[in-house]
Amino acid sequence: MNVVFMGTPEFAVPSLAEIIANGYNIVRVYTQPPRPAGRGKQLTKSPVHQFAEIMGIPVETPESFRKSKTIDALEALNADVACVVAYGQILPSRALAAPKNGCLNLHASLLPRWRGAAPVQRAIMAGDAQTGVQIQQMDKGLDTGDILLSETVDILKTDTAGVLFDRLSRIGAGLWPRVLGGLERGALKPSPQEGAPSYAHKIDKAEARINWNQSAQKLDTHIRGLAPFPGAWCEIDGKRVKVHLCEYDEIDDTHGQPFGTALDDKLLIACALDAVRLLEVQPAGKPKMSAEDFLRGAPVAKGARLA
Description:
Blueprint: E1 2-7, H1 13-21, E2 25-30, E3 35-37, E4 42-44, H2 47-54, E5 59-60, H3 68-76, E6 81-85, H4 93-96, E7 103-107, E8 115-116, H5 119-125, E9 130-137, E10 147-154, H6 161-173, H7 175-185, E11 199-200, H8 216-225, E12 232-236, E13 239-249, E14 268-270, E15 275-283, E16 289-290, H9 291-297
Parallel strand pairs: 1-2, 1-6, 2-5, 6-7, 8-11
Antiparallel strand pairs: 3-4, 7-9, 9-10, 12-13, 13-15, 14-15, 15-16
């Protein structure tokens, strides 16, 4: 089959690699245009763009699919199907219908739970025990299409959003040969989504500031869901510090200490219920480091307050 691939971040690269490895002819890759990145804010091609160029595949980077000429070019490819993975653009109905078999989308949740922009982060932040990856037939709604294939994945108590992203990316990539093979044989059996939908709204910067006035277990999932980006943060001695990893501790008593108080000199911090121990942190302008390394340069005494 002739395949169009649409994707942008690192999450999508394994899917593109898997489709190529299984012998499908990628006639075009669509990805977001180069964006400023790094300290120098130099225009940088997306991970999918860079990989496609290495593989010698033509790349298109339209700003949007609102222009008719963009969809005209897609239709002219006469593709059998489009495989979409975290592309980052809304496709209008005409674009969805351009390939003979429409557009298929890999989504990182068990739909209809966590439709939308940040399904991996929201699943961890909500304390979900499981998530998954699904390939769906795209329609004009937001992640509302029928499901073609699913894989359920456990969320580990040590998973950050970054770690879970990587795992789901690899598992999701492995679904494509099965779905495309089924499409070729006419063996796919679409299933409508069942249950009440929930929406994974885009992460707001205001959510990143740590609120110690909640349970340690809730704070643990919140911190892991925001790691590594944008990164939950607090102030230690008046300076902003990101927290990349912690663990919650079901302590018997905070001995009357208010939330946000250091209960020892090793970053065990009182919460509204129980406490969390900070394990990996990142001071402003510095790389991520263990709590032990941080404390060697910036000791935090028992009784100190974190804001």
